[in-house]
Amino acid sequence: MAYGKNIDRIFYGGDYNPEQWPQEVWEEDIRFMKKAHINLVTLNTFSWAALQPSEDSYCFEKLDKIMDFVRKSGLKVCMATSTGAHPAWMAKRHPDILRTDINGIKRKFGGRHNSCPNSPTYRKYAAKLAGKLAKRYKDYENIVAWHVSNELGGECYCENCEQAFRKWLKRRFGTVEEMNRVFYTTFWGHTFYDWDEVVLPNLQSEHFLVDGEDRTMFQGISLEYRRFMSESILECFRLEYQEIKKEMPDIPVTTNLMGFYKPLDYQKWAEDMDFISWDSYPEPGDTPAETALQHDLMRGIKKQESFVLMEQTPSVTNWQSYNRLKRPGDMRLFSYQAAAHGADAIQFFQIRRSIGACEKFHGAVIDHAGRDDTRVFREVEQLGRELEQLGDVFLEGRTPAEMAILFDWDNWWALEYSAGPSIRMKYLDAVRDYYTAAYEFNVPVDIIGTEDEFDFYKVIIAPLLYMTKPGVDKRIRKFVKDGGIFVTTYFSGIVDEHDLVIQGGYPGKLRDILGIWVEENDALSEGEENSFVYKGNRYPAGLLCDLMHPEGAEVLSAYEKDFYQGMPVITKNRLGRGCAYYVGTRSNSEFYYKFMEDIFTEAKITEIMVTSKGVEAAIRVTDGREVLFLLNYNKESERITLNDDYRDLLDGKEYQTGNSIEIGGRGVYVLLKQERK
Ligand code: GLA
Ligand code: ZN
Fold first, then answer.
1. Are 558 and 567 in contact (CB under 8 A)?
2. Entry pTM
3. Ligand 2 centre and the CA of 232: distance in Å?
């Protein structure tokens, strides 16, 4: 539902900071926004110090003016609570609000996202401010959503957090003995006799750095700290949420997430958020598949509901080493990609460029020149016109995916804390291997959590499912028995939810499903390779080679070299009406492409349509309407043959099945499928 029901057009706008400007400029801004067909602004993102000048005084006069002005101008508001950066006086007076970093160094006032999530001062005043704002502005009917804080995240290692962590452990484990078991403290004689002996895991205690990467000597406690931190910050979100809901129970509340953001378990967060919004800032080397994957992740955390693209830059960022401009057409192309993957609103950071501090060279709708004939403004204006024209045609539309990739934050944390077998083993790499292949086929994918519904899908892929949480094996077994195709990879099924190894042979509880026993894992160094032949072609085996024995599974391919030459590398096990594949190594994109092609054939999954490389086809379906997005990421134009009848929603042209259309470089088509006569 994102910004609510009965909305007649996709919302378009962005972060707007009139508090940085004199009032004359506001008038000018509105003229620009109208011209660009902008209808929504996110207000009040960083104004805590202005709103609360001291312990017990609040000052809303300026915000009142802004709110009245914005309402009078006919703009909708996504109302932020300003708690993403605390006031200087608060830090001075209540140092408990300051964070302590992983080195154990207490920070001074400065920056943002700088409050300790377990600070009583922070919790009290953040919630209070959210409540006061909601009370004051509850009659502003143009507020369509609340936006708690900003990009909540980070971590803290202060004494407050340490004490809260001990309480958390007590709640989680009940007895010190159980905690000792879970943390495996018989190792190196780390046995605790009292909760008070537990210190939080950081670089002063269990952690150390390898090539700048954070590692730990005790995965159990470090994993638990991750869970605790994610939950502590979520609790801060909840406190503000509740205050807002007291005043405005019907208005949805969100906060802007960050895609694959490791510190926060967004699958847990989503339960507490009314809708998902996120900030997409692809880095120069990112492929379109990477951005698509993150949209799919964000859609997936809240049961595939549509989301809001809360921020993207219209042109450039300021915080990368080399801040490359988005090329002409890129912003429009990536905005439609977001829409194609589930976005119901397209928003920018920011409307007007600041003149001071670190974001003065960050892109904005209105540039320092203050003109409406810049390249960027014209592109923003064109997209605004189009979105207005598209109305509500794809709003709340769903992605009809028959394949899912299992993604799990606990697994991510545990896997990458693991000492051995390989420092190069990265969860997201394994996820991308499979996702990218599906993406290139134009097969839609849902990214789901271990507790989500499995039955919707014909194929579920669980790359690097190192951790099997309680009940997951049962759900996978049932999925396969009922006819599903399950795929997992090297180093899966190894540990339980506490990172304790499941005994009796890898892949633990998945053994019978896969019909194999993995005896050893060989980590190859960079550049080292084994190989295997799959369906007549030779592919490399790198990173990790699992040495396995079939226990009922059919061997599809074997290693060609080394002492494990001839041992299986890919297996297939039939179980009930379905089957389970194990891919015991990491290979290259050609392999994943071929492998996924075979899986799709077996599962009878067909692509949305066949396109040339670099052209994406994606659909959203709503109330029986099907909207097809064709997105060309190439510089050159491409020809595409349509396999249905369509009407172009932007220029009204009609096309019949078999027609071929030319899509320009960086071009987009938004087509409505026509009823067959
Ligand atoms: C983040 C923040 C914004 C802004 C942008 C700049 O997404 O939420 O406040 O700093 O980055 O890219
Ligand atoms: Zn803290």
1. yes
2. 0.98
3. 10
